Amino acid sequence: MQAIVLAAGKGTRMKSQTPKVLHEALGVPLLGHVLGHLRALGMKKPVVVIGAGAEKVKEYLGQESTTVLQAEQRGTGHAVMTAARALSDEQGDVLIWPGDMPLVRLETLKSFLKKHRVSGAAASVLAAMRDDPAGYGRILRREGRFCGIREELDASPEERRIREVNTGIYVFDKRKLFAALKRVRPHNKKNEIYLTDTIEILESQGEQLESFPLAESEEGQGVNSRADLAEVVRRLNQRHIRAHLEAGVTFIQPEQSLIGADVKIGQDTVIYPWTYIENGVRIGVGCRIGPFAKIRSGTQIGDGSTIGSFVEVNRSRIGRGVSAKHLAYLGDAAVGDGTNIGAGTITANYDGKNKHQTVIGRKVLVGSDSILIAPVRICDEARTGAGAVLTAGTVVDKGRLAVGVPARVLNRGRKKQ
Ligand code: UD1
Ligand code: MG
Hints:
Blueprint: E1 2-7, E2 24-25, E3 28-29, H1 30-40, E4 47-50, H2 54-61, E5 66-69, H3 76-83, E6 93-98, H4 106-119, E7 123-129, E8 138-142, E9 145-150, H5 157-160, E10 164-173, H6 174-181, H7 197-204, E11 209-213, H8 226-246, E12 250-251, E13 258-259, E14 264-265, E15 270-271, E16 276-277, E17 282-283, E18 288-289, E19 293-295, E20 300-301, E21 306-314, E22 317-318, E23 323-331, E24 333-335, E25 340-341, E26 346-348, E27 358-360, E28 365-366, E29 371-373, E30 376-378, E31 383-384, E32 389-390, E33 395-396, E34 400-403, E35 408-413
Parallel strand pairs: 1-4, 1-6, 4-5, 7-11, 12-15, 13-16, 14-17, 15-18, 16-19, 17-20, 18-21, 19-21, 20-22, 21-23, 22-24, 23-25, 24-27, 25-28, 26-29, 27-30, 28-31, 29-32, 30-33, 31-34
Antiparallel strand pairs: 2-3, 6-10, 7-10, 8-9, 34-35
Helix pairs in contact: 6-7
Bound molecules: uridine-diphosphate-N-acetylglucosamine and magnesium ion (MG).
Uridine-diphosphate-N-acetylglucosamine (UD1) binds at residues 6-9, 49, 51, 70, 73-76, 78-79, 98-101, 136-137, 149, 151, 165-168, 194-196, 222, 224.
């Protein structure tokens, strides 16, 4: 099956210079959430309809998708017509997904596709029950059977009371869809070609139509405004935290922390409040993280380590039993088992052009307020004095002590060797 992702809209209600689909929810653009699922479903190269901010969206997409330009945003139906030429064949079904619907789970989508296949319908819509349906197209039923979708602006007061709404995710028989789209006219308040109008056309032709409601209606939350975006972030985060709680992680004040996608946290680790853990971070068992910690993507933390208050760790490998309890920045660093990072330690990893590595061995004592100007290497069991500034290229051999500004490596070992 091929997929069309609708991402050309201006997103007027966002009041932004950034195209709506590039706004991020927990570090991933809205469009990325959708594309991740399509990839997982094995739908390679979806057709993405771009328009507003096309250059930026295209740049983000790279080679992963086929893009078609909808130069003028004349409605969702028009957007799908624009995509037609990029579809590889004329037969079969097509999945349509708006780029501003990031909360639908992969499992939900799989079961939706399966229900559609089993039903043999010409079109299936993924619907949602909402306490507040405002802003969504309403699902119309005649004698219980799905027969159309009415947009909010065009709905009668009675229709507005319908709580079953369109998520904007559909599967259509391609041939029937494009035949119906040719007949859609912009007879509505927005003067747009609505994709949703194809439902009534197919119904009038006696085609079988299905509307499958979401088991969890929260998945049907779309993003039209900043308030919607905040709500989506809150729900995604809640979902991630719930999974970690179930897996044996303690959160002190769960919703005060932000946890990205694909984060792994070992059992009995405690996450203190106001902690931000970015996508893909790995944390071992029995760690203590936070309060006020920021663990950024590309970081791995070994079992039993403590990353305390106001510590930021970025693209680093932290060993087991490491302590970085207060006020530190570890970026592009490798830290060996049992090492203590004193308060105020900074790895100066960026020289204005390039990032450099800091390698710290096992059982090292990095003194408070040490500045390690990367690349720097501190071998096992070595120490730095408080306030030491290690200039780029410094190597502190095993067991040695480095002190001063810039630091001198003293000619005596820490222990007699
Ligand atoms: C649409 C549906 C509505 C549904 C809701 C779910 C229509 C007419 N209405 O309304 O029934 O409840 O989604 O969120 O389809 N887009 C284009 N080109 C255009 C217009 C829109 O690519 O010319 C894209 C937008 O970028 C967006 C998606 O289509 O990703 C939906 O457009 P949007 O304006 O958000 O439609 P809604 O008003 O939310
Ligand atoms: Mg929308």
